[in-house]
Structures are given as structure tokens and as C-alpha cells.
Design brief:
The chain has 467 residues and is α/β, with parallel strands linked by helices. It has 18 helices and 14 strands. The strands form 3 sheets. It has a 7-stranded parallel beta sheet, with helices on both faces. Strands 10-9-8-13-14 form a 5-stranded parallel beta sheet, with helices on both faces. A two-stranded antiparallel ribbon has the order 11-12. The longest helix is centred in the last third of the chain and has 19 residues. The protein starts with 7 loop residues before the first strand and ends with a helix.
Length: 467
């Protein structure tokens, strides 16, 4: 039990209820804490409140935390950062633990980045302990580093980053710890705390009628349920997810197996983000070069099933989409944590695609195996990796390259031979059900031991002093 029955904790993020990875982390952790320790009062503060995760929690909208669309001067950034710090100080009075999510996103929201630092250093209430949870870092993306370096000198950035007044920095992968040390943060203040998986989301039973309803939503004739094999890519539609490679991989899997695999992308499209919106438009154009369905669910599947009353399903969740899929596909070039690489084992599904070392290395350390995933996808005899081609806001060169490949049978044949051994490993895992079952069994056991939300919630409470 918590040492203080009246403990209060709040999670602070740019938006509460957005369908993104950070909100999935927030929701999963907070629900487990609330269920296990109902005496802990939980709050959520964000630029807007789009979804209330827990009925008995308290919520505060802080509009200043919404990302800015207009470019600001350095003077305006500093002025708004003080306003954010003061607002947080006002709202966190009487709160024991304040957890700020993704405080170092640079140009995504410069006033907030500076404001979070000021809050921890100067404005936080005396009784409040502040923790920064660093899912992503400003220098992981050229998009988020540009104006930060234009407005602030290296010494000023170091002062912002060092986190004076912050109790500890939680990181979901060990490479992030190394990055923070390079930024000048004391190693002893950085704690590896993985994001947990809620097993109950991924082990729900689906009736025939449930499956029919999901297929209908995806506009797939239910009469084809036995002939279609869904490869699910459970990600948002953003360039770093490298969806075009998933399309190309699906094409080659179909060619090698002669089976009717189709691709479903479950995540949302952020039409408020010009890059994401343009990326989506380019993907729609790319669809015309393949002879199989590419279905974009546009974030229609929630993090968890929603019910009308006790039994009738109002809205299916992402776990249900996992259940109707033949396997999970991952071709991202960068991941903050890599949820699908763990969720698949809880759903008893195999994953195929690209190996992402900075997340998979952590998982492999505790015994989860990924030996069949490929480290590169060659596109010419010079052995250039497709991921080396960058997608920028205007040209989306990687999509253009995939489009050229899909339009030219000769190039396809050459690329198939260059990558044959790697692609055949993906096919073998997908089609050899006996080997697949053994891998899933072992990986589920290893993943559950470390990443089940039951364990992560207790670790979190111990680290923050609430247990």
C-alpha cells in the first residue's frame, strides 16, 4: 500500500487523449495504478482533454501546452515559457508527484520545453517532486532541432536540458539514457523504466460476429475471411514509420508465398500536421501501383474495447485488430519505444520486417528473440539501404523510389535477389506455424516477465516514492 493514503500524482502532456504512443503509455500506467491502489488520486493536465482515461481522476486543461502553429521570437518564447511554468505551479499545489511527458521536444513546442525547465527549477511547489519522462529527444529529429539551435546557444540549451530541480529522468530505452548523459545530465539521475503492456487488451476473445463487424468496418468482404491474410502495421501515418517499405515488403511476401496478404495500417493521420498530411497523400498515390488492398484505418480503433453496458461492444480496440491479423509488420526507421515489438507476443502473433536496434537490443537483453528480422533492405547492387533515402516535406524521395520499384518488374527481380535470404526468413516465420508457435511461446514468457504493466506500475510507484 502507498505510504500516504492521500497521495496525489499528475501526468502532464501536450494533449490528453490523443491517439499517440505517449498517451498509450499514460493510459496504461495510470489505469493500472488506479486499479491496484485506488487511494492514490491521479490527475491529467494537458493542452486539451480529448479523452478522460479514468472516471475518478481529476483533469485540467492548460491551453498554453498546445503546440504553437506560428513561429515565435525568442522574446515571445521566453515570455510564454514563464506563463507555462507559473500555470503549472498553480495547478500542482497539493500534488506530491508531477510527471512531465516528453519535455525535450525542441521546436515542437519551444515555450513548453523552456517552461518545463523553469517550473522544475524555480516555480514548482515545495511539496511537489518533479519527474521528467523522456520518450523522445529534440535532436532525434531535424524537424525539432532547427529553431532551438537558431534561438538558443549551446550553453543555453545545456542549461535547459540539465533539469535542475528534477528528481529523476525516466527513459523507456537504454540508448535514451546514453543520449541524456551526452547532454550533460548526471547518469545517477537517469532511470531505465520501460513502458508496460496491458495483457488484457490483447487476449480478448472474438466471436464470428465480432470478426464480421471488424471486416465490415475495414471494407473487406467477410466471404473472403479464409482467403485473406492481414498484415497489421500498428502505427501512426508519419514519415519515420516508413510505411512505403511495409508496402514493398508485403508485395514481396505475396510474390514468394503466392498467398493473398493485404496490409492494414491502424494509426491516425494528423491532418493538423502538414508533413503527416502530405505523407498520407503520397501513400494514397503509391497504392495504385500494387494489386492488393492497403487499408488505412485512420485511428478508428481505440486503445481498448469500449462497451455499451456490460456486454455489447461499442467500439473495437487495437487488440481486436491484432487478433484478426496473420502477423504484425514493422519497418519503421525510428521508434521511441517500439510497442508493437512487444504487443505482438501478448496477442500471440508473430512480427516480421526491419530490425530497429535501439529498441530491440533492450528487449533481447531479457530474452525476447528477433533473429529473423532484417537489418537492411537493399535497393541496388551498391547495397544501398532503402532506409538511407530520406523523406522530406516536399519530395518524399523514399516513396518515389518505392513507386519506381513497384512499376518495374526487372528492378523488382533484381531487388528480390539482393534480399532473397532476408525475405525468405520473413516468409518462413509467417508460414511455418510450428516454429512460429514456439517463438511466440518463448517470447511471450520473456516479455511478460519484464514488461507486463503489473510489474511496471509497481516499479514506477517505488521510484517516485508513492510505494
Amino acid at each position: 500500500m502507498p505510504s500516504n493514503c492521500f497521495s496525489k500524482i499528475c501526468f502532464i502532456h501536450y494533449g490528453i487523449g490523443w491517439r499517440d504512443g505517449v498517451n498509450t503509455v499514460l493510459r496504461t500506467l495510470a489505469k493500472e495504478i488506479s486499479k491496484k491502489y485506488p487511494s492514490i488520486k491521479i490527475g491529467f493536465f494537458g493542452g486539451e482533454i480529448k479523452e478522460k482515461f479514468i472516471k475518478n481522476a481529476f483533469y485540467r486543461a492548460i491551453p498554453e501546452l498546445l503546440p504553437k502553429k506560428q513561429k515565435l521570437t525568442k522574446t515571445q518564447i521566453k515570455k510564454e515559457s514563464v506563463a507555462i511554468a507559473q500555470k503549472l505551479a498553480e495547478f500542482t499545489k497539493g500534488i506530491k508527484i508531477a510527471v512531465i511527458e516528453n519535455p525535450y521536444l525542441g521546436d515542437y513546442h519551444l515555450p513548453a520545453m523552456l517552461g518545463y525547465s523553469l517550473y522544475a527549477k524555480k516555480y514548482k511547489p515545495k511539496e511537489t517532486k518533479v519527474f521528467f519522462r523522456v520518450h523522445d529527444l529534440y535532436n532525434n529529429s531535424p524537424k525539432y532541432i532547427k529553431n532551438l539551435q537558431a534561438y538558443f546557444s549551446p550553453s543555453e540549451i545545456k542549461e535547459i536540458i540539465k533539469g535542475e530541480g528534477v528528481e529523476a529522468f525516466f527513459v523507456p530505452k537504454r540508448t535514451r539514457k546514453l543520449e541524456l548523459i551526452q547532454e550533460g545530465i548526471e547518469a545517477g539521475k537517469i532511470v531505465y523504466l520501460p513502458n508496460g503492456i496491458d495483457a488484457s487488451v490483447f487476449n480478448q476473445h472474438l466471436t464470428r460476429e465480432d470478426k464480421r463487424a471488424i471486416y465490415k468496418f475495414l471494407r473487406i468482404p467477410f466471404s473472403k475471411v479464409n482467403s485473406i491474410k492481414i498484415l497489421l502495421y500498428p502505427v501512426r501515418v508519419v514519415p519515420r514509420k516508413n510505411i512505403e517499405e511495409a508496402i514493398l515488403l508485403t508485395h514481396f511476401i505475396r510474390e514468394l508465398t503466392k498467398k493473398n496478404y493485404i496490409l492494414v495500417i491502424s494509426g491516425k493521420i494528423d491532418f493538423n500536421d502538414s508533413q503527416g498530411k502530405n505523407y498520407y497523400k503520397k501513400l494514397i498515390q503509391l497504392k495504385k501501383y500494387v494489386d492488393f488492398p492497403i487499408i488505412l484505418a485512420k485511428g478508428a480503433f481505440s486503445s481498448k474495447r469500449r462497451y455499451i453496458g456490460k456486454n455489447k461492444i461499442k467500439e473495437f480496440g487495437i487488440g481486436d485488430l491484432y487478433q484478426i491479423s496473420e502477423g504484425i509488420i514493422m519497418t519503421s526507421t525510428e521508434e521511441g519505444f517500439g510497442y508493437p515489438f512487444l504487443e505482438c507476443w501478448f496477442a500471440k502473433k508473430i512480427v516480421v520486417g526491419r530490425r530497429i536496434p535501439d529498441v530491440i537490443d533492450d528487449f533481447e537483453k531479457i530474452g525476447v528473440k528477433f533473429w529473423w528480422l532484417y537489418p537492411h533492405f537493399f535497393i541496388n547492387r551498391k547495397r544501398k539501404d532503402l532506409a538511407q533515402i530520406k523523406n522530406n516535406d516536399k519530395d518524399f524521395c523514399r516513396i518515389k523510389k518505392v513507386a519506381k520499384i513497384l512499376q518495374n518488374k526487372k528492378i523488382q527481380k533484381e531487388i528480390l535477389e539482393l534480399n532473397r535470404l532476408l525475405l525468405e526468413k520473413q516468409v518462413k516465420i509467417l508460414t511455418n506455424k510450428k516454429e512460429q508457435a514456439e517463438i511466440i511461446k518463448d517470447n511471450f514468457k520473456a516479455a511478460k516477465k519484464t514488461y507486463d504493466i503489473l510489474k511496471i506500475a509497481d516499479q514506477f510507484l517505488e521510484l517516485t516514492g508513492l510505494k
